[in-house]
Amino acid sequence: MADFQGVDFLELDSLLSDEERAARDTVREFVSKEFLPCIQEHVRRDGSFPMDLVPKLAELGLFGANLSGYGCAGMNNVAYGLVMQELERGDSGLRSFASVQGGLVMYPIHAYGSDAQKDRWLPALAEGTAIGCFGLTEPDFGSHAGGMITQAVRRGDSWLLNGTKRWITNGSVSHVALVWARTEDGIRGFLVETDRPGFEARDIKGKFSLRASITSELFLHDVEVPEASRLPGAEGLKAPLSCLTQARYGIAWGAIGSAMACYEEVVQYTRDRTVQGGPLAGKQLTQAKLADMLTEITKAQLLALRVAQLKDTGRLHHAMVSMAKRNNVDIALTVAREARDLLGANGIVDDYQAMRHMLNLETVRTYEGTHDVHTLILGKQITGLSAL
Length: 388
Description:
Elements: H1 18-44, H2 54-59, H3 77-90, H4 92-112, H5 115-127, E1 132-135, E2 151-155, E3 158-169, E4 176-183, E5 186-193, E6 199-203, E7 215-226, H6 238-272, E8 274-275, E9 278-279, H7 284-312, H8 318-342, H9 354-364, H10 371-383
Parallel strand pairs: 1-4
Antiparallel strand pairs: 2-3, 3-7, 4-5, 6-7, 8-9
Helix pairs in contact: 1-3, 3-4, 3-6, 4-5, 4-6, 6-7, 6-8, 6-9, 7-8, 8-9, 8-10
């Protein structure tokens, strides 16, 4: 995949600016030359992420890439989306690392934090010298974030946090956890340094999916943080949900990258594979599957590009992001499954990418709002009635 040229049937490149193409191509080269050669070994380990690449990700400006100031790259949302696409072409775990760091940790600090919090954390997070995680999901409350039971109780000038968070990307390697907790005044966000007494992170083992990603459970037992650690602008559930919108936007683009990787690989494989006297690519059923893959990838690209344009002009509604996340992850999973099928028995070994992407996308279909949750978000937007 070192010479990957992308999938662009409708010549969408012509709609991109030079800066947008340059951002994409820079990350494309990084993924092909520095990430793909090492991903196989990390997937074969249980929960191993190539932490040695974090400084390079920071050097490329990929942490908080669409934020301004504090050492952030200040990309527009088209360029940011293309970057997420290329990262997930490598692996969903790679895009997740950057997406959590930027969309779920840096964004809320940027949007809701105090000046002191921004000055302390954003430059370090952008440089990759600090790693962050986002503590919203709980063992018994995933999609129903409003049901959280983690509590923060005021004690003078401090807060005591108690609770458990689960399925937390980067939890055990983070320096700061953005923990959402219920207070007597509603849900609030707290920046919790992970070396504070009472804080513990344990990695979740035995995953079939996102193996090259660190996934943790966070335990907070009387963790004391000062009032200065509370995000002053974050009040109620609306704040963490706005963070999820940022992450879902990146996922909508990232899923296209996974689909592209599977499609490109299987096109080459079927051209080279001889079946009954000729290339597998010359068979009618194969061509029908490839035509469907290319069509769905192209439709996903058009959807993501339009959502990006609306985001850049301040006209984006969160339901639009739900449509893009829901559709693009779904088609990427279908492409990965069809590619795995066309690879035959070779599709189950890690010399090929399709099954790794397929398994990863099962997680991507679930996190940041399940497929069904996004269906109901769209349903509410259509009817004005909530079925959640």
